[in-house]
TrEMBL record:
One of its GO terms (molecular function) is transaminase activity. Keywords: Aminotransferase, Pyridoxal phosphate, Transferase. InterPro entries: DegT/StrS_aminotransferase, PyrdxlP-dep_Trfase, PyrdxlP-dep_Trfase_major, PyrdxlP-dep_Trfase_small. Its EC number is 2.6.1.-. Belongs to the DegT/DnrJ/EryC1 family. L-glutamine:2-deoxy-scyllo-inosose/scyllo-inosose aminotransferase subfamily. SUPFAM superfamilies: PLP-dependent transferases. Its cofactor is pyridoxal 5'-phosphate. This is DegT/DnrJ/EryC1/StrS family aminotransferase. Signal peptide: none annotated. Pfam families: DegT_DnrJ_EryC1. The keyword Transmembrane does not apply. It comes from Streptomyces roseoverticillatus.
């Protein structure tokens, strides 16, 4: 079976974990802090504004807590994004409001977001689909002008940028994911960036039970290390030195991992050029750099599921990221977003990971072309 996704882990990561074991420190410690510093340099932001967490979902929940959302507030979220956003919104008693996306790029435009803003909107939580930043600069300008917080779900965008600026740093906050399906993998893990220095200090405090920290002015003498000061109610959300050790290796390998994904994307582009009934991803806008997290195609909605079934039977895993959230009753009244529904019915994501060989990519493209060719009369 040609896997849809597979982490790129090897001996360097194993050695890093062994060194963490030998150090005697496996919880949040020096390796976690070093990883935060490395990632901050990667983003081009001060290290004190970055917190290593146990997941990007924890980062999303924490970001919305930092914004002080309460019942009656609204958060605008593109419908084709992950459940962590609306879950975090509902956990605060606020209401997720889903906006449209472009049916080809699967990113929202400024107009898509602006259409659903109301006086109750407190934040926009935007996903960069497949690692493509979309009009994040325009969204940042819109939010600043309207006095609304922008939170970037950069889970797919660990190496993405727009106009020389890292995705995840345009907004007030950004979160990244390092789970086993992402580009950089730590098993589970995530990073949170907070632009405001005061909120960044609070994020670090809330991520460790709400206890006062040295940057809060609290440092007990070493012979009374058991002393603590409870500033507010928090949870334990921090990462640990085992996963940070893996993350540091993965971050050093990141340019090569992304380059291989980009090469596979070009091979898919070439192999599928001119294929009847198959639409490839749109080209990136000028000044944009993608992490190449996903490669998606679009086919007639009447055959999309059968295409996926036949490819699976032929030994190729495919998927679709992400299901339309506006159709989930748990998040509120179901409404119609035609562009999102169209994209959700037509889109199929192909295998894309550094372990995919050139032969595998050729096989996937060939099987896709032949399957769509065989099924097109049915759609017609």
């Amino acid at each position: 079976m040609i896997a849809f996704s597979r982490p790129a882990l090897g001996d360097p990561e194993l050695r890093a974990v062994a060194e963490a074991f030998d150090s005697g420190t496996v919880g949040y410690g020096p390796r976690s802090r070093d990883f935060e510093g490395m990632f901050a340099r990667h983003l081009g932001v001060p290290p004190e504004h970055v917190v290593f967490l146990n997941s990007a979902t924890s980062g999303t929940f924490l970001a919305l807590e930092l914004l002080g959302l309460t019942e009656g507030d609204e958060v605008v979220i593109p419908s084709l994004s992950f459940v962590s956003g609306p879950n975090a919104t509902r956990a605060r008693g606020a209401r997720p409001v889903f906006c449209e996306v472009d049916p080809h790029s699967l990113n929202p435009s400024v107009r898509d977001v602006e259409r659903v803003l109301t006086p109750r909107t407190k934040a926009v939580l935007v996903l960069h689909y497949g690692g493509c930043p979309g009009d994040v600069a325009g969204l940042a300008e819109l939010c600043a002008r309207r006095g609304i917080a922008l939170v970037e779900d950069a889970a797919c965008s660990v190496a993405s940028s727009a106009y020389g600026r890292a995705a995840g740093t345009f907004g007030d906050m950004g979160v990244w994911s390092f789970d086993q399906m992402k580009i950089m993998v730590t098993g589970d893990g995530g990073m949170l960036h907070v632009r405001d220095p005061r909120l960044a200090r609070r994020a670090r405090r809330l991520a460790y039970h709400g206890l006062a920290r040295p940057d809060d002015g609290f440092t007990p003498p070493p012979w009374r290390s058991w002393e603590f000061e409870q500033r507010e109610i928090g949870r334990r959300l921090v990462g640990n030195d085992l996963t940070a050790a893996i993350g540091a290796v993965q971050l050093r390998r990141l340019p090569g991992l992304v380059a291989r994904r980009a090469e596979l994307g070009r091979r898919y582009d070439d192999a599928l050029a001119g294929a009847a009934g198959i639409r490839r991803p749109p080209p990136l806008p000028g000044g944009h750099v993608s992490s190449h997290y996903l490669y998606w195609v679009q086919v007639d909605r009447r055959i999309r599921d059968e295409v996926a079934r036949r490819l699976h039977a032929a030994g190729v895993e495919t998927s679709f990221r992400y299901g339309p959230l506006h159709t989930v009753p748990a998040y509120g009244p179901v409404r119609s977003l035609p562009a999102s529904e169209r994209a959700a019915a037509e889109t199929l994501c192909l295998p894309l990971h550094p372990g995919l060989s050139d032969d595998d990519a050729r096989t996937v493209a060939h099987l896709l072309r032949e399957t769509v060719r065989a099924l097109r009369p049915r759609a017609a």
